[in-house]
């Protein structure tokens, strides 16, 4: 019995510091990559100029949450629908105040819900719903109410765990749906009225279309374009973004993803990679939406980098999103590297001069200098700069299905050693404390105790 209690004591002493340190590290990681825009930036950001409206075209509304919305879930569908030239595509929210995407990318909605309704005089033809942080919070109640209203007359289309937003709004009850593979169990327990399906890239339930994790949304979008406009349009869009052959247009089935031991690198990066790489991300006029999504979801989404946007002022992306940088080139905080979602010619000479003068040690990486699917060079860079296991899980988290050549270092021994050292220190302290208490009790027996 005494031996069993000792084993229990040492086990708890080993686990407690690991859990406390890991919990604090995870909290710090989430805070660093999911932080809303600073108040001063929000207060001085002017509403975006309204883009043109063509009443002959159907309208796609990409919804932004009140807090942080998932970056690829917003930029991905926006870019794909805009690529067609067949749609009015707008970012919409409950108000036109500045919104933040995961990884700390800030943008301005084109329209508030009421403004879009006044413009169209009806519901949008397609409403795209991204994953949103704290979807059940009171702040997001206007979003859920608006989605319930749109459900009567439009196609609701969720990317990744945007399905949770639709489920919270009650519009998935009694319908088939899918979501990110890592969230299926959680959402099935929380929303049992939804018929959740695994092993598919997307589910078409008639008035609702749901996609699985992140890049599965590309397949779902191409499927929708082929359904509404014919396969030629879907194939043309796939070619423009250098997306591999859209093999899931006819059959969305895929081999389900599951957690495996090597995937623990993601948890270690989240909880115990306390020194993130600080990186500046250059925002410039005409920057590609998919290129930006790749930078933010691969680098910040892997919890290996903390990203800081910088530019000379608010800029319009390739297809008209209004992006607001948090820093100027002169005011960028110290960074380890600079990531340009483009080629060398996309970095302003004046900004390059500021970087050379103020941050000469910060190397500049031009991630998209050559034509390629936007996520390929980002994943390759992550493998080289961090390690291969981190990049492999990043591809898995993204539900990247194509063959991609990655090379980089193996498992980082220091990252695994840290929790082991913390646990050993805790067990060692318990051992020393137990020995001292034992000696103290031996020298000073309790009152009334008798010697054997």
From TrEMBL:
<dbReference type="InterPro" id="IPR029062">
    <property type="entry name" value="Class_I_gatase-like"/>
</dbReference>
<keyword id="KW-0812">Transmembrane</keyword>
<keyword id="KW-0456">Lyase</keyword>
<dbReference type="InterPro" id="IPR052158">
    <property type="entry name" value="INH-QAR"/>
</dbReference>
<protein>
    <submittedName>
        <fullName>Isonitrile hydratase</fullName>
        <ecNumber>4.2.1.103</ecNumber>
    </submittedName>
</protein>
<dbReference type="GO" id="GO:0006355">
    <property type="term" value="P:regulation of DNA-templated transcription"/>
</dbReference>
<keyword id="KW-1133">Transmembrane helix</keyword>
<dbReference type="Pfam" id="PF01965">
    <property type="entry name" value="DJ-1_PfpI"/>
</dbReference>
<keyword id="KW-0472">Membrane</keyword>
<dbReference type="InterPro" id="IPR002818">
    <property type="entry name" value="DJ-1/PfpI"/>
</dbReference>
<feature type="transmembrane region" description="Helical">
    <location>
        <begin position="411"/>
        <end position="433"/>
    </location>
</feature>
<feature type="domain" description="DJ-1/PfpI">
    <location>
        <begin position="59"/>
        <end position="222"/>
    </location>
</feature>
<dbReference type="GO" id="GO:0050549">
    <property type="term" value="F:cyclohexyl-isocyanide hydratase activity"/>
</dbReference>
